[in-house]
Structure formats: structure tokens, C-alpha cells
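# nightly structure sweep
# worker-07 picked up a monomer target from the shared queue
# config: single-sequence mode, recycle default, output format = C-alpha cells
# input follows
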Amino acid sequence: MDLRTLQQWMQGAVLQSTPADREKVAQTFLASPQLDANERLAIYQRSYLLRLLSCLREQFPALCHALGEELFDGFAREYLLASPSESYTLCDLGRRFPSYLESSRPDREAPPAERETWIDFMVDLSTFERTVFVMFDAPGHEGQPFATVETPDANLRLQPCFALHESRFPVAEYYHQVKSGQSPALPPCEPTCTALVRTNYTIRSLPLTPPQFTFLRVLSAGTPVPSALPALAPGLPAASSRRAWLAVRERWIEGGMFV
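# output follows
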């Protein structure tokens, strides 16, 4: 085997709890005085999988809490077999986990109204947690000046470490409760909009109304604040949009949302 083929075979062998071809393992690895080739490989099978499962639990703590560690590990094992790690860094390990949960759900062929809501919650929660995890290492604005309430609206820009999240459930609230040591019950279906912002290397979430979510999404596309204001009160006079903006302006600026 060339090196690439050998690496791919090795990854497949390590991810399987029982190698399909023991003879090939014996031909590929050397035995030691104490262990044969398959026994030596088994050490890596156990330790590698346990390491990856540990990483996924760290990246999706609220999902692990919601499912319980045993069920979470079961989903994670199937995910690792279907989507083996393809990056040099384990930070990317969970990148495809939310989409895997969605694509592998047993009711995926059913109409949306007939699907299991608890699976919807797990997919939404994992998507939120992946967003939060990525933001930990994303480029931010720490050490640089933020906007103040005196900054003119036309000069306000969203800071770089900012994200919007739309969900069918209050996943942000559930996530923060788990992270604070609580044991919340699974929430009922309740569409929510959330802004995520990182300041001083701490990520916070801000609940949004649908118009506020639309307004911030317009800003994310590069539209200046004055031009985006109609999104805060669609179909209403400009004075209504202005009042809606003034109701949140100071709080959002002091929360580090703008530079």
C-alpha cells in the first residue's frame, strides 16, 4: 500500500472495534513479545475512540446532558464511523455532527408535521452548540475600542465575533442552564431568535424578536444602521422603527455588539 492508502486503512481499522481482516492486521503490524498484532491494534482502537468521544462530549455538553452520556456516545460512535475525522485538529471533529443527526434521523422521510419533536430539538441544540464552540477561537475585537453610545448610527458596525441563530426551541436558554450546573427538562417547541457575541473572551447570548433578528441580519450583510432601520418595524412609519431602535441601542452597544 502507498502511504495514503495505508493511512486510510489504518483509520478504518482503528475506528472498528473488531478488524474485519485479522490476517491483514498481522501482515501490517509487528507483534511484540507480549501482544500479537491484533492485540496491539486493539489498544489504539480503544484509546482513539475514547479520545474522540471525550472531545465530542466537550464540544456538545448540553446535547450530552439532554441525551444522557450512554445514548450520546451511541450517536457519536455512529457519527465517527460515517464521518471519520478529516482534519489535523480535533476542533473540526464536530463540524458535521448536526447535519449527521438531521440526515440520519429515522423519520427523515416523514412530513415535517409528523416528525419527532425531540429529534428537532437535538438537531437545533447541536447546531447552536457548534456555533458557540466555533466562536471561542474565532477572530474577535478584544483589546480594541468598541463603539460607545456617542458613536453616530452611520458609523456603527457589527463586531467580528458575532453570530445569529434561529431555532424551533429555546436552545440558548437550555444551553446556559446546563453550563451553569442546572438540570433543565427538555423545553417545549417555541421558535426563538438569538444573537451571540463575544467580549473579553466570554460568549453571551441575547434573545431577539423576529424584527430584531431581521434587522441584525441586514446589518450582517453590510447595510448601515440608518438604512436597515425599517426592518425593525416592517410596514410601519419611520418613527416606529426609530423608537424600536432607541429601545435597544444603548443596551446592544454596551453589550459589545458594535465597533
